[in-house]
Amino acid sequence: MLKKILLVLLILAPSALYLYIVNRDDNNTAETVTTPDKNSQPEQYQTPDH
């Protein structure tokens, strides 16, 4: 029984490590994202002609 639990944990360990690394990288990039200036013009979208 203990061997089966350890085997499952061993199989799932790489996935857990990958998710940890991906989530840690997302937190670092969120701090470096800059917001647009207040003086900049909003994006203009073309409306369809009806």
Kindly report how far apart the N and C termini lie. Answer: 69 Å
Proportion in helices: 55-70%
> How many helix segments?
1
Mean pLDDT: 80
Give the class from helix and strand content and strand pairing: mainly alpha
H/E series: H
Contiguous runs where pLDDT drops below 50 for at least 5 residues = none
Number of strands: 0
Main pleated-sheet profile: none
Radius of gyration: 23 Å
In quaternary terms, these chains amount to single chain
Shape: elongated
How much strand content do the residues show?
A: under 5%
Description:
By secondary structure, this protein is mainly α. The protein has one helix and no strands. The radius of gyration is 23 Å and the shape is elongated. It starts with a helix and ends in an 18-residue tail after the last helix. The model has no long low-confidence stretch (mean pLDDT 80).
Layout of helices and strands, plus pairs?
Layout: H1 2-32
Write a concise synopsis of the structure shown.
The protein has 50 residues and is an all-alpha fold.
